[in-house]
Structure formats: structure tokens, C-alpha cells
Amino acid sequence: MTKYKLIGPITQLISMDGLPLKGALKDEELQVIHNAGILTEGEHIHTIGNYDDVTEIASNLDVRIIKLQSDYVCLPGFIDVHTHICFSGSRANDYAMRNSGKSYLEIAKAGGGIWDTVTNTRIASQQELCHGVIKRANHLLKNGITTVEVKSGYGLSVEEELKMLRAIKEANLNLESDLIATCLAAHMLPKDYDGNHQEYLNEIASTLFPILKEEKLTNRIDAFVEQSAFSKEDIEPYFKKAIEMGFDITVHADQFTPGGSKIAVKINAVSADHLEASTDAEIKILAESDVISVALPGASIGLGCNFTPARRILDAGGALAIASDWNPGSAPMGDLLTQACILGTFQKLSNAEVLAGITTRAAAALKLEDRGKLTSRTLADFCLFSTDNYNEILYHQGKLTPSQVWKRGDAVYTEQ
Asked: What is the value of pTM for the model shown?
């Protein structure tokens, strides 16, 4: 079988190449190739450009031609850099109680909250969790998301966190999309743990971290830095231990109160996620750092709270990615494109800023240099939308979904 494929002609191809990582973006900065072609070589892109020019290059190769017969816009495969799609159970009752005016504490006392998901996830087998991850990741794939970050954090013990991360690893072997696992054992202090916050974190660091390395389950450590979870003072030694062992760090920061972003900057985390409560002081230090800010509009929609101050972060010179936070509690929608469009509307983001937030800047939030843009030698991960104008994609706020999704040089989804 030939390893080369030529796909086209494509009405518009938005490569997302050549954009700066940080700061505001204007739509005029997007590289739009009209009447484009994509030549793939195995899993990677060989050449993109004008269809006739790419066809001439392909004429010297043993190539399979995939001729497109109607208008399409091509974008890089989307990257969702923050999800919790490994879980069991539902929090529909929480949602109803929250919308009827119940507080977080009242919901927890009624048996809801994160601990409800922990209880159900602990009951589930590794195989059941794996099946759930596969189902949700395949749903995302149909919406153009070819790379998905997946957190643990509903096990909250060494044994149960391992079960979750092993389920994620197993799921990744049975998917077309790529899963990037993250250990969130520091999600909250378990209700059944006989000890304080520091003792729990010490146990996780000393017992769980070495197994994560040994079994190659993840190279990423996350923690929820918040009054209801872990303080800045408790979490800093935990992060330092992780860094000493070679883990990358990401932080649940500034969701309800500021403070976590300062820790993220201090330890040079890869990203600080949430940031709904960030003030001008936090925005300034984030913008002056290499930490990528990750907006999670799904949590704002689910909780009915403020959005991440995305406009101010970009105008200050920060790097902004956008993720779904798909989880059973605060962000059950799991629709990245719709959420990104809504964030763009309320925060007045250009289409370039929104698209960069779910492609090239999202790739940087996972330290992935081989995707998020379409150029020679990047992965052949891309989506084809049935339209002749890329602006239609965000205009329809998630209702215009891909007609085709390609992953590593193969068409893995075609709209029926």
C-alpha cells in the first residue's frame, strides 16, 4: 500500500502556522490557503499548498488521490487540553439542586459533589472505566478533537488512582485519537483518609509517583489549589517532589479564589487552568511568564459563574488555550467547539484567538510540537468542514461539525 495520499482540492485551508504563542491575534494573521491540497506521507504531512502545485509534487510519487467534490474548509485537529472523562456515575441531581439555589455545601451534605463521583468511580472496574473513556473520546473525535488530555482524580487513593490511569492507558490503545493522561490525585483530601493534607500528599508522592514512572502511566501531575482542596503552602512541596522526579506540572488555579496561579508561575508549570477568579495581579504575572493560561468555559456555563478573563489575558500578552473541562459535576456538556464559541462571544475574542486556543496554543499547553498546525512533518491530524468560509464554523457556535476527521493520515470519521 502506498504511504502517500493527496487530499483536495480544499476551498480554504487554515494552517495555524506562523502564529505567536502569546498575545492577542487578529484574523488577518491567519494563513489561509485557497484551492489547497494536502499531501500526506504515512502519519505526517509531507506538503501543503496550492492544489495544482501539490499535485505536481505528488506526480513523482506513488500516491493515492482522494478527490473532494464540494467545498470544504480544513483546520488542524482540535486539542482538548483539560478533561475528566474517566469517571463513573452522574451528577444530574447536583445540577438540578444548584440551579434551584442550593449551595455547594448543601449539595455535598445531600450526598452530591466530587465525593459522589469518587464513590461511583471506586465501585467501577478498570474495564468499565476504560469503556467509558473510549465512548466519550469517540464522541469528541466526531467533533474534530483528535488529541484529548484525561485526568485521574476520582480515585483519591494510590490503588484507585492507579486503576483510573491504567484504564486511560488501556483506552488509548483502543482509540484512533490520542489520550494524554494526567495524575490529579491531589483533587481533594479524601473523606475517608485518616490524616491531614500534608500526610496525604506525602503518601501520594512517595508511593504513587514511582509507580507512574515505572508503568509509564503519565508524565503530568496536577493539583486543585483552592480553599476547599489544597492550600498553596501544602501543595508547593508536592509539586517540587514531582518536578524532581521529572514530571511536568499543571495547576487547577484561581477557580473560586486567586492564589493558585502564583504557585503555577513560581514553579514554572506548563499551564494554569480555570482562572475565573484571576485579578489584574494574577493576569500580569501569568502574562510575564511562560505558563499557558487555560480557559474552561464549560465550568462557567455549568456553574453559572464568570468566564476566565480571556480578553484581558491576551491583551496583557499572555498565552491562552481553551478546553472543555468535561466532567460529571461542573462541566457535563463536553462540547469544546460550542464552549469556545461562547467564550469568544462573551470575551470578544477574534476567530484567530479562538481557533489558536483549540489548536496551536492548545498543543503548547501539552508540550506537543507535532500537532496543532498544518505544516510539513506535523501529524496529519485535520478536520474538513462542509463550507466555503472558515468564519462559518464559529458563526454556527458548534452546530457546524466536521464532515471528515483525519488522524495520523487516515480518515477516521466521515459524516453519514
From this structure: 0.97
**3-state percent helix, strand, coil for the chain, nearest multiple of 5:** 40, 25, 40
The CATH class, in words, for 4-76+373-414 is mainly beta
Residue 285 C-alpha cell reads as 504575572
What's the pLDDT tens digit per position in 28-60? 999 999 999 999 999 999 999 999 999 999 999
Helices 114-123/158-172 angle, 10° precision: 70
Question: DSSP characters for 270-323?
Answer: SEEEE-TT--HHHHHHHHTSSPEEEE-HHHHHHHT-PPP-HHHHHHTT--EEE-
One-letter amino acid at 239 equals: F
Assigned fold of 79-365 = TIM Barrel (3.20.20)
- The DSSP 8-state label assigned to residue 355 in this structure reads H
Q: How far apart are CA 87 and CA 124, in angstroms?
A: 9
Q: How far apart are CA 219 and CA 249, in angstroms?
A: 9
pLDDT in tens, 322-340: 999 999 999 999 999 999 9
